[in-house]
Amino acid sequence: MSVTAQSDPENTCPNAFIEVAGVAKTFGKVRALAGVNLEVEPGIVFALLGPNGSGKTTLVKVLTTLLRPDTGTARVGGFDVIGQASEVRNIIGLAGQYPAVDENLTGRENLEMIGRLYHLGRGRARDRAVELLDSFDLSDVANRRAKTYSGGLRRRLDLAAALVANPPILFLDEPTTGLDPRSRLNLWEIIKDQAKQCNSVFLTTQYLEEADRLADHIAIIDNGAIIQQGTSQELKDCCGGETHVKMRLADRTQMQKALDALREIAPENMYQNPEMGEISFPAPDGTAVLSTVVRSLDAVGVELAELSLKEPTLDDVFLAITGHVAEEVPETDTSMKSGSG
Amino acid sequence: MLKNVSQTISDIGVMSQRDIRRYFRLPQLLITNIILNVVLLLLFNYVFGGAIQTGGVAYIQYFLPGFLVQSVVFGSTQTSVGISEDLSKGLIDRFRSLPMARSAFLSGRVVADTLRYLILVALMIAVGYAAGFRFQGGFFPAFAGVWLIILFGIALTWVGVFIGISVKDAETAQVAGFVWVFPLVFASSLYVPIETMPSWLQAFANINPVTPMVDTIRALSWGTSISSSLWKILVWDLGIILVCLPLALRRYRLLAQ
Lengths: 341, 257
Ligand SMILES: Nc1ncnc2c1ncn2[C@@H]1O[C@H](COP(=O)(O)OP(=O)(O)O)[C@@H](O)[C@H]1O
Ligand SMILES: [Mg+2]
Known about the structure:
- The structure holds two protein chains of two kinds.
- Chain A is an alpha/beta fold.
- Chain A folds into two domains: 18-233 and 319-338, P-loop containing nucleotide triphosphate hydrolases (Rossmann fold, 3-Layer(aba) Sandwich), CATH 3.40.50; 242-311, Alpha-Beta Plaits, CATH 3.30.70.980.
- Chain A has helices spanning 56-63, 85-91, 107-117, 122-135, 151-163, 181-196, 208-214, 232-239, 255-262, 288-299, 314-322, 331-339; strands at residues 18-27, 30-40, 45-49, 71-76, 79-80, 92-95, 169-173, 200-205, 217-222, 225-230, 244-249, 271-273, 278-282, 304-310.
- In chain A, helix 3 (107-117) crosses helix 4 (122-135) and helix 8 (232-239) crosses helix 11 (314-322).
- Chain A is elongated and about 80 Å long.
- Chain B is mainly alpha-helical.
- Chain B contains ten helices and no strands.
- In chain B, helix 2 runs antiparallel to helix 3, helix 3 runs antiparallel to helix 5 (104-130) and helix 3 (59-88) runs antiparallel to helix 7.
- The radius of gyration of chain B is 19 Å and the shape is elongated.
- The chains are: A alpha/beta, B mainly alpha.
- Chain A binds chain B through residues 61, 64-68, 86, 89-90, 92, 94, 96, 98, 100-105, 109, 113-114, 116-119, 145, 161, and chain B through 7, 10-11, 14-15, 17-18, 21-22, 25-26, 89-91, 93-100, 104, 255-257.
- Adenosine-5'-diphosphate (ADP) binds next to strand 2 and helix 1 of chain A.
């Protein structure tokens, strides 16, 4: 089987496939991975989305050669993570869930050390460190020991370290956890940029919004198994319920009149909330339904206070598939949400 | 092949550079350790020097060789602490994800520790000289003696590496280090002649590697005959390395379990 064969003819990025087949890992009595199957195309941003304890870190560790699976095989860029671990290590960069920087070295020294361990050579390692310090906004603190860095600075240094070798495949385990909103946006840009350069990014996240905004392909993991995957849109289509059209009447006494008028264009299942004067129903055609609604209600003289389409979110998808909601979204995240549409 | 060898050497060099920086930047690791050793040396010389009978030999002539050995034995406990710190802080995952030689993480530490022992031993000899110590056997025995101490330090460092990678937490490593190091230092010929000990302790002191190590260094620095202690300590060094190095590498590989 050729591992460099590409399923998508448009995708011209070479050999950065990830293939996981039947990977299981048990720690004592805890079944961290229960037979994971997965394929990730080259040159895309892939998000592994799952709540705390679902097995994300364990899978990342298997793919980055840190952990041997009990059973199953995994290939990264065509190389077997067990049998060809050093080949795999040559083409990956890793930023683990917790920043791993040497506190006794300066930011610059940390990056130079990593560069030399990737065998870039002394001069190249030095130049690359300067480049990364610059692009991660770390130049000002470059000559300070990492011990004195704040959590956010450490996280950035750790991410820079993962990018030292400009690796074809970048693994980021919950990269934005604990980042302030501005750094988070920066990181999102960096991640998208990687994909533009044909580098794959395999990231894990607990945040539905992040997966939605960033990833070309999403897999949902729960209790150590991939339970659904596809593009954000595919997931919403398959499992998130449909788009709904939602309206509020200007005068709620006109409820019955409105329902009668809509009956012709709406399917059977119309939801109504007479107290609020609200009506909603599934609208698989999307925006086309809006004008129809306006016309039908206009014809019978019903006035609208509000009319909108409600798209399904990944939250709906997650809830629908797993039967439970994803992690609580922490403070920094809510502020992000209100700031962006 | 040649490329592999030179890469491995470069990896070990990079890793040891990191450890050496650590020793120079954390004063409690090297500087305080040196100061402590020097202060102890001077205290012993001037406090006990007049009181303890050493059969005509100047007191510092008697105890300095033992002090040199002691300094590397205690020094090797730092190795465990450093290794276990890297493990508990997750830095090890970063290193293990890099395409560097598998042995570089551990052997880089050993190289750094070798340098640390050299600095420590050289400084103590210098202070000893100022306080009246002399290598009476001449340059070559002195030179050989220093390297024998360093070799002993390297062997013990592999014990420290093994402990550090096994306990995975710095406090435990610290305690574990002292547990095995104290009996080695005190139940040996380092502080007192073995003949003064109860017989069961003599049995231990006789097989304790610190005893032939100290005896060898004394003989070399006094210019007396070395007897069997030289090959005993060489066998010990070799034995310790042959056991602990593979064990430590095995532990390193088992981190993937
Ligand atoms: N080294 C380990 N020893 C024991 N249990 C572990 C270990 N690593 C992970 N686990 C357990 O495996 C499960 C999956 O963990 P993890 O992969 O870290 O999940 P996530 O990254 O999605 O939060 C959890 O129940 C966790 O407690
Ligand atoms: Mg995790």
